[in-house]
Amino acid sequence: MIIDKKLSRLLENEEPSIQELRNIAKNMGIKLKRSMRKKDIIKVIKNKLLQLKEEGLITDTTNQLSYQMPKISRIDLVENKNELLNENLLVITSVNANWIFAFWNFSKELLKKINKIPENAKMIMRFYDITNKDFPIDEANRIYESINDLREYKSYYFFVPSSNTEYIGEIGYLDYDKNFIPLIRSNKLKMPSDNLNISENIIFYDVKTSKKKKIRKKVNINIIEKIPSIANGNMTLPQLGDRPPISGGGSFVWNLYSLNRGIKK
Amino acid sequence: MNKGKILFVLHSHLPYVRHPDYEEFMEERWLFEAITETYVPLIRMFKNLERKEIDFKLTMSFSPTLIEMLNSIDLQEKYIRYLKKIIELSEKEYEKTKDEELIKHKMADYYKNNFKEILEIFEKEYNKNILNAFKEYEEKGYLELITTSATHAVLPLYSEYPEVIKMQIKYGLETFKKFFGHYPKGFWLPEMGYYEGLDNYLKEFGLEYFFVEKEGLIYGNPYPIYDVYNPVITNSKMFVFSRDKENNIEIFDTESGYLNDPRYREFYRDIGFDRDYEYIKDYIDKSGVRCNTGIKYHKITGKDKELYDKLLYDIDEAYAAVKEDADDFVQKRVNQLRKLNEKYPGLNPVMTYAFDTEFFGHWWYEGIMFLEKVIEYVYNSNNIELKHPQNILSEIEEVQMMTPAKSSWGINGFFEEWINGNNDWIYPAIYEMVEILKKKINKKWNEQEKNIILLMIKELMLAQSSDWAFIISSGTTVEYAVNRIKTHVKRFFELNAMLESGKIEKNKLKYYMWVDKIFDNIDYSDIM
To answer: Could you say which residues from 348 to 407 on chain B have a Cβ atom under 8 Å away from some Cβ of chain A?
Structure first.
């Protein structure tokens, strides 16, 4: 689990409310008892942080980005939950070449099943690299498994090591014998590429005759690629990368001052 | 030297911010400012160039939401009321600045005349519908007009749903045709968002070309042998142009781009914030919230200057900067062409420059003057020439075939601005709406029920507008963006409940049809 170090600062330097502490614990996958007091919760969180630190899983994001994002809490879009879809849905979509955003919805039937999963069994996500495979899951090139318990979440960001790869995801749990029991399967996702695909085999298309012609041609590449700013996310991927000098989208919300053109009062 | 072809693409888009249930609505000013500072000045630029007998070639994309707003009678009336108020203010300013600095008074005079001229063009020349101007210049052969998806949805985010992709494309094309009388040949991918396979859908709708960001081409398969300097063709026989990203930066870059010249107008210093409240209150938002009026007396002056410390703006001084910058830009293109000629002998390189239209004029006040000068200088150059995509494609005999990569023109070339911890809550709701709609759409419904489904499609598409997620990311008018999404989702579920229960609330239906009056009567039956 990768977690933002500012949490530890919050615990040490500031005076969080019990609700904030409960939220932090929830985000870290810690189950709390109703009767727990503030100092007990802090203790549990600190222990968890210590454990994560020992495992080398805490990433300090403090000095990486200066762009301040507005904080928006999760929003209940529809008041009457009964109107929402009572179906299983697991969607994976690419944020960039290495980050996947996944979100899911469980039907009432599946929720019942999930409630019966033993408490000590983690609900996890698996990603199957199925690039160039006809029988995806069984013949996956590689399988990646998340570490943290997803039971309390409805969405999550995952880092996947290979770009330009096709994935299928599954949410499931590990049983007593460490067998993965899938509960729900996602769509197939092709991740963006961030590699140059150099090939000397070029196909030319003749516009008049509609004929294709294969040629071998040495490709002369001397372009300079920008080093991408890594989306240094924790589980909610709250930060954007460095603001680029050019940006697409929303010409009316272009904020020149967020891009350092002078000083805004 | 082989001639270089320059392709200027201006993408004009605003989200649907029409609020007919309010006499005035703050976000409608986005449209009004765009008309005043960008669209009408562009029309004026066309007139100037035509008068000088300069055969300019520009490609312009109009988003369906913008088309619908520019064609909306109530927005046209509101705009005239808005502009007349600004003219009234500029007249007051003309009097008031008589006792102030000379340059200020000169600028007050300029604004007064400028706004009056804009009113004349808008109201008298084009009868309140400036789409007619763009149509006119298309018919004269100066413009090539294209469009984009219905509500500017970032299409790769919905690649799982061909129905959504087709709906967004089809509603976009139909809206374009309704106003311009023909289908376009090209398509602007919202936020330049592309994914493998999208070309098939575009082809299905009879389109011939689209644009991708540089990442889309250089990370494609295989690498394009001419980099971004020649179109390529996909397996589905769609032509693809790619943006000359690094060289777009010369214009855009907020550190070193032309728009930072200290002589240019300072966007954030506006009399809407500077003048006494009592004086300005009739010209800002009705709620009393101060906002831009479009009358600005200060120049950028320097990055290190606080807003209160900016010096006075002089349009003539700015115009001198425009000429220098335009000349510099064109010179750099000629130098770039020389290098490209060495690297790709035998090729007439295509250099594609694509921008949000509103960047010129609205954000960079002198941007349209800059464009005009660039066009003039290119026209007089022996080495480079302006072209339309169709001119370029008609001259192509052989083209490299390749598959572009998933990409956008956002941060790092991907989708981080539209999916992040602040706005990702949008997508589960939208996907649920799509799932629900998919189930409804194939059933048989009576006319009234069909209308409800049309409304549900409209609510879904309005929620999908890329602007809401982007606004939340950029932290500008976040509350409005959040409310818009919530509103469309809420309405969708209300409509769904009506269909499910059979209890039709006629007044509510009527209201929903009236309040967002777009995409009426588009047949969805062949999509889902």
So the answer is: 356-359, 362-363, 396-402, 405-407
Hey, is the C-beta of A211 within 8 angstroms of any chain B C-beta? no
Q: Count the Cβ atoms, other than its own, within 10 Å of residue A37.
A: 9
Contacts with B249 from chain A: Cβ below 8 Å = 245-246
Q: Is B21 buried (19+), middle (13-18) or exposed (0-12) by CB count in 10 A? A: exposed
Place of tokens 């990370």: B219
**What is the bridge-based pairing of β-strands B186-188 and B209-212?**
parallel
Q: Token pair for residue A105? A: 């919805």
Give the C-alpha separation, B240 to B233, whole Å.
Answer: 6
What are A126's strand-pairing partners? A145, A170
Task: Of A32-46, A162-176, A199-213, B276-290, give the lowest mean pLDDT range.
Answer: A32-46
Average of per-residue pLDDT across A19-46: 77
Interchain pair A253, B429: CB under 8 A: no
Is-contact A210 A193, C-beta < 8 A? no
Any A CB within 8 A of B273 CB: no
Query: DSSP E strands: which ranges in B396-488?
Result: 398-401
CA distance B299 to B440: 56
**Six-digit token pair at B329?**
């830009």
Whether residue B154 contacts residue B418, with contact meaning beta carbons closer than 8 Å, is answered with yes
Task: Give the Cα separation of B453 and A141 in Å (integer).
Answer: 43
Q: Which residue of A has its CA nearest to B470?
A: A250
CA B41 to chain centre: 15
Nearest CA distance, A220 vs chain B (angstrom):
7
pTM: 0.87
Tokens linked to A256: 């020149």
Please name the residues in contact with A199: beta carbons below 8 A apart, sequence gap of 6 or more: A219, B221, B222, B223
Element (H, E) at B501: helix B478-501
Chain-chain contact of A247 with B417 (C-beta, under 8 angstroms) = yes
Q: Mean pLDDT, consecutive 10-residue segments, chain B of 528 residues? A: 94 95 91 96 98 97 97 97 98 97 97 98 98 98 98 96 95 97 98 97 98 95 94 98 82 78 93 94 89 94 86 98 96 94 94 93 95 97 97 96 95 88 90 91 87 94 95 85 94 93 92 91 76
The distance of Cα B323 from the centroid of its chain, to the nearest Å, equals 25
- Residue whose pair of structure tokens reads 């189950």 in the numeric block: A31
Mutate to test the interface with B, among A100, A162, A246, A258 (most CBs of B within 10 A): A246
- Concatenating the DSSP letter of every residue in A132-191 gives T-SSTGGG-SEEEE--S--TT-SEEEEE-S-SS-EEEEEEEEE-TT--EEEEEEEEEEEP
Cβ pair B191, A248 in contact under 8 A: yes
Burial label for B325, CB within 10 Å (0-12, 13-18, 19+), is: buried
Look at A248 and B249 and tell me if their CB atoms are within 8 Å.
no
Longest dimension (CA), chain A: 78
Q: CA separation (Å) from A221 to A196, A217, A260, B248, B434? A: 10, 12, 33, 20, 43
Asked if residue A238 lies in contact with residue A245, where contact means CB atoms within 8 angstroms, the answer is: no
CA angle, corner B161, sides to B159 and B165, nearest 5? 70
- What is the spatial distance between Cα A81 and Cα A97, in angstroms, rounded to a whole number? 34
For A17, A32, A53, the CA distances from A14, given in Å and listed in that order, are 10, 21, 20
